[in-house]
Backbone:
């Protein structure tokens, strides 16, 4: 938000969006884990935060955009 030079009103100059980069591994050798983490940390863009979590079904479903019209059509077919 920026403030006008003459006045007290503010206006939006830019909108920052958050993006996610998901890397899902099925197996990771304990000996290679430190090397892999070092590569990830050294190659991540500035301002990006790294989060390491166990991948769940909720994480998988969160990647898809909801399509209520499609869900309605599927419900009609059943």
Residues:
């Amino acid at each position: 938000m920026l403030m006008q030079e003459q006045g007290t009103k503010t206006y939006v100059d830019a909108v920052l969006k958050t993006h996610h980069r998901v890397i899902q591994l099925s197996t990771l050798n304990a000996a290679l884990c430190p090397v892999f983490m070092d590569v990830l940390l050294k190659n991540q863009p500035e301002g990006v935060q790294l989060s390491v979590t166990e991948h769940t079904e909720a994480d998988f479903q969160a990647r898809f955009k909801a399509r209520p019209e499609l869900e309605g059509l599927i419900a009609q077919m059943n």
In short: The helical segments are 33-43, 57-62, 68-77. The first strand starts at residue 2 and ends at 3. The radius of gyration is 21 Å. The longest helix spans residues 33-43.
